[in-house]
Specification:
The complex is a heterodimer of chains A (112) and B (116). With 112 residues, chain A is mainly beta. Chain A is built from no helices and 9 strands. Chain A has a 5-stranded mixed β-sheet with strand order 1-9-8-3-4, with no helix packed on it. Chain A has a 4-stranded antiparallel β-sheet with strand order 2-7-6-5, with no helix packed on it. The radius of gyration of chain A is 13 Å and the shape is globular. The termini of chain A are far apart. Helix content of chain B is 0%, strand content 54%. In chain B, the strands form 2 sheets. In chain B, strands 2, 4, 5, 6, 9, 10 and 11 form a 7-stranded mixed β-sheet that branches. A 4-stranded antiparallel β-sheet of chain B has the order 1-3-8-7, with no helix packed on it. In chain B, a hairpin with a 2-residue loop joins strand 5 and strand 6. Chain B is globular, with a radius of gyration of 14 Å. The chains are: A mainly beta (112), B mainly beta (116).
Amino acid sequence: DAKTTQPTSMDCAEGRAANLPCNHSTISGNEYVYWYRQIHSQGPQYIIHGLKNNETNEMASLIITEDRKSSTLILPHATLRDTAVYYCIVRALKAAGNKLTFGGGTRVLVKP
Amino acid sequence: DTAVSQTPKYLVTQMGNDKSIKCEQNLGHDTMYWYKQDSKKFLKIMFSYNNKELIINETVPNRFSPKSPDKAHLNLHINSLELGDSAVYFCASSQDRGFTSGNTIYFGEGSWLTVV
């Protein structure tokens, strides 16, 4: 699976949008972009994923550039409970043996 | 109604002991995983089982032996525990749809293992 690069940490103001960038310049055509987050002392939580098109769900929006070499996770109205480590993962789906390979992630601190 | 549940949540044990961590999922998934998160907070996959069959084994020491009695359960048994085994162990599950995109992996809350 392709490697991703994310900033180590970022701060965000409560109530404002949080834009989390991710570079995946070596992504292949069959690889999806997944985002997970891990709140302190909890298990990783699925947020969203996409292949080419932008995606939106109740938690966040995912914007993927046209060349697919980078993406941005948008938390539209960050709350204090969004403080977590956010992982951008690029992953090819296989017939079997699918897995997630986690990097260091971005430590997001939402401040009042 | 926890989807992926692990027990125990906390475990403190002495070096050399044998211990097990149990995992159950009620999502009807056919694939289950064990991940390890060490003190540096990196999450790494250890094992994956699909329909009770071992699919992934990421060069984990033989002291670690997963056992899947059925699709809903994947237990992790660790023999001769070492200090370096201290970590958080996460169980996870997914419905392996192969090449389709709906292959979301759901994680449990983790089991904190401390070896003293």
